[in-house]
Specification:
Two copies of one chain form a homodimer. By secondary structure, chain A is mainly α. Helices cover 67% and strands 0% of the residues of chain A. Chain A has nine helices and no strands. The structure holds a DNA duplex (30 and 30 nucleotides).
Chain lengths: 210, 210
DNA sequence: GCTGTTGCGGACAACACTCTCCGTTTCATC
DNA sequence: GATGAAACGGAGAGTGTTGTCCGCAACAGC
């Protein structure tokens, strides 16, 4: 778990005052960082393509400050996606991880997080374009997502609950499918549409005794 | 079938010289119209967000000419989507429309057309935002798509091949799912990913005797 | 409170894209 | 070929977004 609240551990959170000189972090820096994350989180959830200057305005800081805290758009999107993944991980830890239900539970958590968070949505969207080279924000987050998913996948597979030809990549595919539905639906219908889509896709992944 | 080749019937093809005075269509108009469609089709297939001025350049005409033929982006995208739907309809007519296989065949044709044509992809993408008000390009095309799909859906449902709770909206959902996968995949992996996604989703829609 | 350092923010340059204006060219007709 | 009408295309105005510069303000340490 990449610590929420630990500034230094926030991906992309290259804070201005983070030099190795060991000086304390200025209070305004920390305050602004949090304000930016909160503003971005709120705005991205409704409008994944919201311009960065609107995020800065909502946070009550100048654009330059935003860029001082996050080098580019993907840095702030990634920081929020990381927080959301933290939360999903925490929620997932409270449910039994075994069998088909374990996989279904995790996917439900992930998909409902995608509905709430435009950041996670954008992460899945970049999965193809940016996930290939190590070092990128997308790459690290997607790897983390894969690790989360693979554990549950293996459990479901071992229990004989899945189609014989099912692979972990199929699970990523399912997330991509949910993404398409969420992005294409009107805001007030996203949750229902995504839930139904996940139902269909998961059902398609299960082993059915004919 | 909205006639390919019949200029007046092309949606959004409000040709400059199309006044009711009955005068013949100028040859350069027709030539440019076709050149624009061809250019757009080619460019949109690889890059759904290609700027309009690139389409004009590829067609060998000025931007003003593009706007004289198509009032805005959606007009040209819609014109191409209509052509693609024509082709899918023609292909679909050669396969048996009955039962689950009939539905599967149509969806396969549609999804592979989405892989090839960025225009159809954008149409599905707009399905939520633009399909609500009659009169828009998106509305008419989505309605046409629904009609195509509903026939086959009813056939499959009547044959008892589908889940009891399956609705025609689920089919639209499946197309949205495919869209998400296609847009998220690297160009050379789109076909495979879309095919697999369709397999999962369709399988999820089928009735499975437990 | 004073001071050096660090971060701040408004304003701006740069860019990408859409859509339009107007002088020029091409077309169909005679 | 001459002529009027219609379409053409280059150039540019308008718009929205990203990313940067530099004088100014806030902070931490003394």
């Amino acid at each position: 778990m990449s610590g929420i609240g630990s500034l230094a551990a926030v991906p992309g959170g290259a804070l201005p005052g983070k030099g190795s000189s060991g000086s304390a972090v200025r209070s305004d820096v920390e305050r602004n960082h949090r304000a930016l994350l909160d503003a971005a989180r709120e705005l991205l959830s409704e409008r994944p393509n919201v311009p960065l200057y609107e995020i800065a305005r909502r946070a009550g800081v100048g654009q330059a400050t935003l860029y001082r805290h996050f080098s580019d758009r993907m840095a702030i999107v990634g920081a929020i996606a990381a927080e959301v993944l933290d939360e999903v991980e925490a929620e997932a830890a409270t449910s039994a991880p075994e069998g088909a239900q374990g996989l279904a539970n995790l996917l439900e958590l992930l998909v409902s997080a995608m509905v709430r968070s435009g950041a996670l949505l954008q992460l899945i969207d970049d999965e193809a374009s940016g996930a290939e080279q190590p070092g990128t924000v997308t790459y690290e987050l997607v790897r983390r997502l894969l690790v989360m998913v693979e554990g549950r996948f293996d459990g479901a597979k071992a229990a004989g609950a899945l189609r014989a030809d099912a692979t972990p990549e199929d699970v990523v595919l399912v997330l991509g499918m949910a993404k398409g539905v969420i992005m294409g639906a009107a805001p007030d219908k996203r949750a229902a549409a995504a839930s139904r889509a996940l139902d269909l896709a998961l059902n398609g992944l299960l082993a059915h005794r004919g």
